Amino acid sequence: MECEGFGLGIVVYDVRTEYRRRPMGITQTNPRFSWKIESDMCRTYQASYRIQVALDQEFTKIVWDSGMTNSDKSVHVPYNGENLKPDTRYFVRVKVVDNYGRESDWSEFEYFHVGPLSDEDWSGAEFITADFESPDQKVSPILRKDFEVHGAVKRAMLYITSLGLYEAYLNGERVSDWVLTPGWTSYHHRLQFQAFDVTGLVTDHNCLCVMLGDGWYRGPLTWKRFKNLYGDRRAVLALLSIEHDDGSREVVVSDETWRATRGPVLSSGLYDGEVYDATISLTSLLAPHMGDHTQWSTTTIVPGISKSILVGQENEPCRVVEYVHPIRFIKTPSGDEVIDFGQNMVVWVEFRIEAPAGTKIELEHAEVLDKNGEFYTGNLRTAQQRDIYICSGHGEETYSPHFTFHGFRYVRVKGWPGDLDITKFVGCVVHTDLERTGDFRCSDEDVNRLQHNIVWGQKGNFVDVPTDCPQRDERLGWTGDAQVFASTAAFNMNVAPFFQKWLRDLKVDQYVDGGVPPVIPDVFFGDPERQHQSSSAWADAAVICPWTMYLYYGDLRFLEEQYDSMKRLVEYMRSQGSSEYLFDTGFHFGDWLGLDSPPGSYKGATPDEYVATAFYAFSSNLTSRTATALGRDDEAREYYELYQRVSQAFRDRYVTQEGRLAVQTQTAHVLALHFDLLLPHQRQTCANELVRLIRENGYKLTTGFVGTPYLCHVLSNYGFHDVACRLFFSREFPSWLYEVAMGATTIWEHWDSLKPDGTFWSDDMNSFNHYAYGSIGDWMYRVLGGINPVEEKPGFRKVLLRPRLTDRLGFVHVSLMTQYGELAVEWRRHSDRTLGVSLSIPVNVDAELDLKHFDGYQLGRTEYEKLLVVDPHVKVSESGHKVCLGSGKYHLVLQPI
Ligand code: BGC
Q: What element of type H or E holds 497?
């Protein structure tokens, strides 16, 4: 055992602003800073910090100096200096003193860049559209401005957004690698703009071009294919701000002096794909020195778009994050030429081709082959997922689409001249570029594959908003799916800004009566059938998601911002139902896709009103805890009382005289226990009953979207960890590893999306990339791996390390890059029958290691003494089960009893 240091003394690193490194164009006026600390001594805490913010990287023009401030806070420390100015870059650095009195050097500097903050800051820029634009105009317009710049340029910043999607080019070069900009928000209320540093692209004679696509703004959405949901004309708003060496500034803004023409993208749609005619040369359209202006038409201002809806980019951008190469070429029995990329993913294909002008190449995208090995698109429903490229005929040309994305593993190619050469194709994986934070590995390769599938499900469905699926005619921000997956997502990747953005949209899209739409951004507002559809478990995302983010990131702002929205939902539930404390009315999705559903129904057998009342209680409880965290004690009491009364009403209705549940489904038992709705003496009976139901069903689960996320948690918590493991490690249908055994590379929507005989569950609703059941990841990290956030010190300021062993595994290794640094736990059975436990705990973190479930092993006296040598402050509880540790790396060897 040892406590390894880094040999560095104490070092501050990874200084971030609002979770991000060097964010551009922010509109927060009191951004918060976070940093990490490395130390070569165990049990290091920050005693004080000092932050400086300046206008220059030499820190001579300081705008805020916090002074050395006594505090252990190293995350979410708010800026508190003079007012931040728009269109300005600020540099930040941090130093700290630790509990041993050691002072660090200044960190390396980082910066953030503030964007336009008010209407005036846009310097008269307007939303402009091509004068030939119309609701039916499919071709992507290109809008263009030519201008000259004189004098040396110190910095040039482009602030830009659009109605529809945009790609911006300065002098023929893309201004950034971000795609699908400006992202998807509730456009009526909030529209993100982006800020790009284009200093290196500005010359004397310039042209700024913007190509526009339909995107979420006006392209068809949902299976009902609503069009022009937010507006019917694509437009751009741009401000190029140029700062000269002599301090002077000039601006170029979008206005009616811009010109417009039709580009090579003949049509584009998120569901249907893109048609691109390369005989129309994009390069010439984007080139400076346009020459003949007569080819270009005029532009007009789109009236009535208030700049008050503009917000700086809030989450990480979407971009091509990685490349996947084909693994094989397939000629299907019916003669289709198909490329297999080996991974179901969200991506578009880039290919190289040399062919005569006018040659038409068609790519279609599908997730699976059918049981005969044929290319299968039945489950895409109305989504075409088809890209068509018309060759220019000028030597080797390269194409990838601009304004679409596809969910697929297989590509059918039509029109390829000669033999199809798969080396000419590459899959460009596109999603929100989230930082990978968590890792789960163990001795079972199928489980590792499951973890891979969960992560790929997250990649494919975190495309600017959390979606249900990326392939068929939905790809919508279903609240229920996001809610069940949020904690797993927060283990795998840093999702704080991603959820922050989405929750702000949830808040503005919430119904007037407090109900919450089933998808965010809401796209059903014009649909008489679904104008108001606040379903339990889906709507509860309004409460569960901010609470989960608070637990994982310790960021009180989630709760401050969303508290009203949480209360409004709870009050909405209170206003429904046959009594104040029951929620037994209205439409609900129920235990969606539960295997105990009656024939012909998607809803599991647990009654809607049971699920709804259970979630009503749970959300009241979380709202009460939120009020406590916000220091609103009266409201905390009020909502706690509500939770108790709802739980009482729940028991009155659903617990029989014998103390059993009136609803005999697995999900019913799981919810009653996980949401703490029973009296103490009823709980174990309920858990026993759950196990009876599972046993009577041949140790197979029946749970759907609502029960599945908590099923194994409940079993492990109530003394049935073996049953949880039996379900988890099963390779038979229905189970997570059944999908793995069937060759899945992502998580499926249904337990039997693909049946053992190779047939499909159905054409109608059968996604092979649906993350809801990936919510088991939370149990893998927390129970098998043992990393648990602690409510009193959220964000892993304190962590409970409580791994649960299972005979089925020889080792488990989990790690999580927290905002304090990397936290890691590994347990490993050795051949000498000892158990190795390795821990890595970052600076400023308190860890409690709970060995209660290490049946058959104990922390021996000598091992404990060795621990004390490393860290004399280590505390072990009387039972010997709990060890309290500070930062450092620890390797323990536990002896068999
Ligand atoms: C989606 C789900 C969603 C459900 C709600 C489906 O079409 O794909 O994931 O939660 O509808 O009913």
A: helix 496-509
Q: Name which of 872, 822, 825 is nearest 851 in CA terms.
A: 825
- Residue listed under structure tokens 């700086």: 312
- Specify the length of the chain in residues: 897
Count of CB atoms situated within 10 Å of the CB of 377: 23
| Low-confidence residues in the chain, pLDDT < 70 | 1-8, 290-294, 869
| Ligand 1 centroid, distance to 453 Cα (angstroms) | 20
Cα separation, 820 vs 817, whole angstroms: 8
Q: Structure tokens of 887? A: 């930062």
Q: Is 674 left (phi over 0), alpha (psi -120 to 50) or beta?
A: alpha
**Dihedral angle at the C-alpha atoms of 793, 794, 796, 801, nearest 10 degrees?**
70
CB-ligand 1 contact for 337 (6 Å cutoff): no
Q: Integer distance in angstroms from the first to the last C-alpha of the chain? A: 20
Q: Count the neighbouring beta carbons within 10 Å of the beta carbon of residue 170.
A: 22
Give me the catalytic one of 474, 609, 689, 739: 474
pLDDT of residue 2: 46
d(CA 567, CA 160): 36
Q: Which amino acid, one-letter code, is at 822? A: E
CA 56 remoteness from chain centre: 34
Which residue, by CA, sits nearest to atom 6 of ligand 1? 468
* Residue 732 known to be catalytic: no
Tell which residue, 844, 858, 878, 771, has the closest CA to residue 47: 844
The answer to whether the bond into 466 is cis (omega within 30° of 0) is: no
Q: Is the CB of 468 under 6 A from ligand 1?
A: yes
Quickly count: other Cβ atoms within 10 Å of residue 246's Cβ: 8
What 8-state DSSP symbol labels residue 781? I
Neighbours of 152 (CB within 10 A): 8
pTM for the predicted model, two decimal places: 0.97
Is there a contact between 466 and 502 (Cβ–Cβ < 8 Å)? yes
Active-site residue, 749 included: yes
Q: 469 CB less than 6 Å from ligand 1?
A: yes
Structure tokens belonging to residue 198: 């284009």
Residue nearest to atom 2 of ligand 1 (CA): 468
pLDDT of res. 290: 66
Q: Report how far residue 392's alpha carbon sits from residue 290's, in angstroms, rounded to the nearest whole number.
A: 20
Strand-strand pairing, 318-324 and 178-179: antiparallel
480 Cβ inside 6 Å of ligand 1: yes
- 752 touches ligand 1 (CB under 6 Å): no
Q: For the residues of 500-556, what is the DSSP string, one character each?
A: HHHHHHHHHHS-TTS---SBSS---TT-TTTSS---TTTTTHHHHHHHHHHHHH--H
- Residue 327 CA to residue 349 CA, distance in Å, equals 14
For residues 269, 274, 276 and 282, what is the CA-based torsion angle, rounded to 10 degrees?
Answer: 60
For 738, other C-beta atoms within 10 Å of its C-beta total: 18
- Round the CA-based radius of gyration of the chain to a whole number and report it: 28
The tokens of 431 are what?
Answer: 């999603």
- Give residue 863's pLDDT: 75
Dist. CA 742 → ligand 1 center (Å): 23
Residue type, 98: D
Ligand 1 centroid – CA 167 distance (Å): 31
Half-sphere exposure in the Cβ direction for 390 (13 Å, CA):
14
Q: Is the Cβ–Cβ distance between 263 and 211 less than 8 Å?
A: yes
Q: In this structure, are residues 31 and 91 in contact, taking their beta carbons and an 8 Å threshold? A: no
Ligand 1 binding pocket includes 478 (Cβ within 6 Å)? yes
Give the model's pLDDT for residue 875: 79
102 contacts 8 by C-beta, under 8 angstroms: no
* pLDDT score at 1: 42
